Amino acid sequence: MTFSNKLIQWYLYNKRDLPWRSTKNPYAIWLSEIILQQTRVDQGMAYYYKFLEHFPTVKDLALASEEQVLKLWQGLGYYSRARNLHVSAKYVYYTLNGVFPSTYNELIKLKGVGDYTASAIASICFNETTAVVDGNVYRVLARYFGIDTPINSTKGIKEFKSVAQELISVNDPGTHNQAVMEFGARLCKPQNPFCSSCPLNESCAAFEKKLIKNLPVKEKKIKIKKKYFNYIVIQTINNKTFLEKREEGIWLNMYQFPLIETSKIINEQQFIAHQKFSEIFTTTKVSVKLFNNEPIVHKLSHQHIYAKFWIVKTTSLKMAVLDWNEVEKLPVPKLIDNFLNQFNNN
């Protein structure tokens, strides 16, 4: 029995009952793949249902505002996915007359769609013989064939794609792709894989040579940067505040309280002495109180943010026109959302 046949046989008996597996609608499959790019299945499921409820078709998503899309995505992280999703929906609706691309070569033109996502949609929805390669697939192939080429190197990306393409089932590429991904997620796991019950263990190089913990190989990670954020949380006596729209970075077009970014943790005196604080509160009398005595550490893939929220109370302020009750309607990063939940419950 071939590699593909064994995987598909295992998959048909052991696959999870996931909502996107009961459809071949390319819009729904695309939505699920974008959500699951950087997200666990158990976390992404709720967002998948929410998006389909609010935007049941690509037209509905295209006609939504970016603010609506970002608000619905809030808490899922990697917000460029949501922005790209929206851009691509508008492209499909306005440029392609609402007809979703049906080939790998057309799918990969969509913003936010790379080799993996294009391969997944093309094979599952349109039966195109193009192999997916994600973290699960890298792990299965590296262990089974004993490949020690770093998976995040240019050479590794090409090598693993080539191997995956050679193995894919010509008759049922969609099921093959889902099988190898499910196999990696549930059996050939990163830690404590179920090698003893693996249907491929008799021919697995890593199992034979006891290299399970050594494969796959990854090049050294990027150094984590530390950033220090000081948010100015304005609160007037008539319950008004101010949030600014981010114009760059991972939280582009999301809202936040005015931000002072520093090279290290600062105290109240340094906070008040900062130029941005002086520009906002030129002549206004204020009282300042730190909401969290210890910085809140918000960990992202390549940076750790150490955040302080400074509550600045004042009688009135020209820029503070947003009612506190309206704040929850705006799309904000998870860091801000967590603060708001704590602040409003105090």
UniProtKB/TrEMBL annotation:
CDD domains: ENDO3c (cd00056), NUDIX_DNA_Glycosylase_C-MutY (cd03431). Its EC number is 3.2.2.31. Residues 35-186 form the HhH-GPD domain. The keyword Methyltransferase does not apply. It holds the Pfam family HHH. Keywords: 4Fe-4S, DNA damage, DNA repair, Glycosidase, Hydrolase, Iron, Iron-sulfur, Metal-binding. It catalyses: Hydrolyzes free adenine bases from 7,8-dihydro-8-oxoguanine:adenine mismatched double-stranded DNA, leaving an apurinic site. GO terms for molecular function: purine-specific mismatch base pair DNA N-glycosylase activity. Its cofactor is [4Fe-4S] cluster. It comes from the Bacteria. It is an enzyme of class 3 (hydrolase). Binds 1 [4Fe-4S] cluster. InterPro entries: A/G_AdeGlyc_MutY, DNA_glycosylase, HhH-GPD_domain, HhH_base_excis_C, HhH_motif, MIG/MutY, MutY_C, NUDIX_hydrolase-like_dom_sf. Belongs to the Nth/MutY family. Adenine glycosylase active on G-A mispairs. MutY also corrects error-prone DNA synthesis past GO lesions which are due to the oxidatively damaged form of guanine: 7,8-dihydro-8-oxoguanine (8-oxo-dGTP). This is Adenine DNA glycosylase. It comes from Lutibacter aestuarii.
